[in-house]
Specification:
Number of domains: 1
Number of helices: 16
Strand content: under 5%
Structural class: mainly alpha
CATH class: Mainly Alpha
Oligomer: single chain
CATH superfamily: MFS general substrate transporter like domains
CATH architecture: Up-down Bundle
Shape: globular
């Protein structure tokens, strides 16, 4: 007869292996970010051409999604119940609202749908990050976190290539939205059973909300502010790279690849970042990524050509997920048992920066499509935040960081 302590382990829970957890996280983040957040980016040129959508209207649609993302991240602070319930609800919302985007031509309806998709995306990112990273760290497989976050870039690349194919086939944006909605729902169904349970059903993590009490200190505030600066700094190229490229080259086979390049760089960077964090430490790697991203944001100003836009796509895409992964890992270290609360507040700051970025574009980009002023401000903020992050993590947090990106001794 098995010992009492092992009675619950005689039948392993479905999807309990680290590889399955990493695969579910990969898929969930690919849907949440590649489709729920950024499907609009490669489709914006198509929608501009079909519906005479202006840059300003595109910015409003982007900001609606980012407002939803802000509301979703704030609501994550008060949600109670299983993490996986919130993840599944978020994934379902993304798939259904993406489908609905292809079924209406109402700008007001688009605003509402993109806001709802933003709420779902925030729930998935906050809870998948806490769920997957917590389980991988507990299993001693923290290196697999790169696989989880590679899902974001992979989702972006899939959405971008799908959009290029539809442009080549002269299909309209409604079909693109419908197709991406089907992809999102199909991916959700594939991981639905894995997200059925947290696999440690009696654990505190499986049934709690992030918790209302968090002890704020200087380092926590620094992480929140720098993560917010990151949200503002990357969002202008992340939203308007294909639109900027289209202003320079009209062939979709040329300008269309700017977005898949962003996604491919994001996916590859997460796989390389784990080794980089072992060499220089997670905090330093995050700081350096802010500075490299600043170079990418500046590239279209320094080199106003399709090459400059592609450099921006590669440098911003190549550091986008390094910054995300670095921020989530630091939240795990600094937040400890209340990490989900810190992750939610950081995500809210990130979303606030994202809302400000497109709105700044509506105020500063003229009819000539010159993005230089908002890009300059984004570049400066990234430099300041990178320098701020370069200060080492307080020694009080070092012991809890071992094995998950601690500073090298």
């Amino acid at each position: 007869m098995a010992p009492a302590s092992n009675l619950g382990e005689r039948r392993p829970a479905l999807g309990s292996s680290p590889l399955v957890i990493a695969g579910a996280g990969f898929t969930a983040l690919g849907i949440a970010m590649g489709i729920g957040r950024f499907a609009f980016t490669p489709l914006l040129p198509m929608m501009q051409q079909e519906a005479a959508l202006s840059v300003g209207q595109g910015a409003w649609l982007a900001s609606a999604n980012y407002l939803g993302y802000l509301l979703g991240s704030l609501s994550a602070l008060t949600l109670r119940g299983r993490m996986t319930t919130a993840m599944r609800a978020g994934l379902a919302a993304i798939g259904l609202t993406t489908l609905a985007m292809g079924l209406t031509q109402s700008f007001a309806a688009w605003l509402v749908l993109r806001a709802l998709a933003g709420i779902g995306s925030a729930w998935v990112l906050v809870f998948v990050s806490a769920w997957a990273l917590g389980k991988l760290n507990a299993a001693g497989r923290s290196a697999l976190r790169g696989v989880v976050f590679a899902g974001v870039g992979s989702g972006i690349a899939v959405a971008g290539v799908f959009s290029i194919a539809l442009m080549q086939w002269s299909a309209g944006s409604p079909k693109a939205w419908l197709g991406l909605g089907v992809i999102a729902l199909g991916g959700t169904m594939a991981i639905w059973r894995t997200l059925r349970t947290d696999h440690h059903g009696s654990g505190e993590q499986s049934r709690r909300g992030p918790g209302p009490c968090y002890h704020w200190d200087f380092d926590s505030v620094r992480l929140v502010l720098c993560y917010g600066a990151f949200g503002f700094g990357y969002i202008i190229p992340a939203t308007f790279v294909p639109a900027m490229a289209r202003e320079l080259v009209k062939d979709p086979l040329v300008f269309g690849w700017s977005w898949p390049a962003f996604g491919i760089a994001a996916a590859l960077s997460t796989l390389l970042a784990a080794g980089g964090s072992q060499l220089v430490g997670n905090r330093r790697l995050w700081a350096m990524s802010h500075l490299v991203m600043a170079l990418g944001v500046a590239a279209p100003m320094v080199w106003p050509s399709i090459c400059g836009v592609l450099i921006a796509a590669c440098l911003v895409g190549g550091t986008f997920m390094v910054n995300t992964m670095g921020g989530m890992q630091e939240a795990q270290i600094v937040g400890g048992p209340h990490a989900t609360s810190l992750i939610a507040v950081m995500t809210a700051a990130f979303a606030t920066g994202q809302i400000a970025g497109p709105l700044l574009v509506t105020c500063t980009v003229g009819p000539d499509g010159d993005f230089s002023r908002p890009l300059l401000l984004a570049c400066l903020l990234l430099v300041v935040s990178g320098v701020t992050l370069s200060r080492p993590r307080p020694a009080a947090y070092a012991p809890s960081a071992k094995g998950i990106g601690a500073e090298p001794s």
